[in-house]
Amino acid sequence: LEILVTILNKNDNDPVFAQPNLSRTVPEDTKVNATIVAREELSVTDADLDTIYYELTTTVQDTDGYFAIRGVNNPEIYLQKALDYDKFNLTTLLLYARDRPVTSPEPTNTATATITIVLEQSDTRPPWFQPCTLIHADNSVCISSPYSGRVNISEMSTEPLLLEPGPLYAIDPDYTINDRIVYSIVGGNTDGVFSVDADTGNLTMNKIVTSPDAFLLQVMATQVSNIRKYSVATVEIKVINRSLHPPYFEKGIYNGTVFVGQPRGSFVYQAGEPSTPLVIAAVDEDYFPDV
């Protein structure tokens, strides 16, 4: 009597990740399509020798779409979309390994691996002169206004010059790096009249100016660890006569007349002289013509 026995393989084993918990530090400037976690590190064993199907999800809101797997049967994780440290700096990925397709009606055994992704801010932006105005929603560009100041003709100032809209100052917008900024004058400094403190950005005078000219300085702010990261600001220095007298009004009281029903923008006329517009004038004895 010959008895033939066939042993059927029952699908009764879960897939097993060799490393169910992984972490990666990913630089912000990592290139799209770069591998983040290699396929070999996400290997799965299955005692039932089934084909394994993978699925990747994220647990952190607004971090979908940045990371993906190469294919349903290839768990290698790669960067699918450019990173931005200002949008998020930490996320957690869940990689599912199943021994049946997701849509299969058959009982499925599943394993899960957790991958923690920590973003590392990269040196992607040059210094920003302050104050500045952000012009894009992603905070990638900040535009500053020109600086301006004044010096008196034939006078030597020993203090740092006062500038508008504020002191000459720049920051590293990649704030976790916060590289040191140094300053230098790279243009417009005729005859070397001005100097800038490399560390503080303070502008000072080296010599007096004897003609009522204006200087249009170009000041560069450079990151110490990366000289390719720099910005240039314009500083206009006007040379003026020293003001010895305050301005004053020609009259203490001005009287005017307006007519009922006149449209907006109509002239106000001198009281008693309905054909002569009212003019309010101030005089400054330091300057001519009157201001």
From TrEMBL:
Keywords linked to the UniProt accession: Calcium, Membrane, Repeat
Record gene name: Cdhr5
Compartment(s): Membrane
Single Gene Ontology MF annotation: cadherin binding
Domain Cadherin: residue ranges: 18-129, 145-249
Any one cellular-component term (Gene Ontology): catenin complex
Pfam family, one: Cadherin
Domain of life where this protein originates: Eukaryota
Protein's name according to its UniProt entry: CDHR5 protein
Organism of provenance: Pardalotus punctatus (spotted pardalote)
Example GO BP: cell-cell adhesion mediated by cadherin
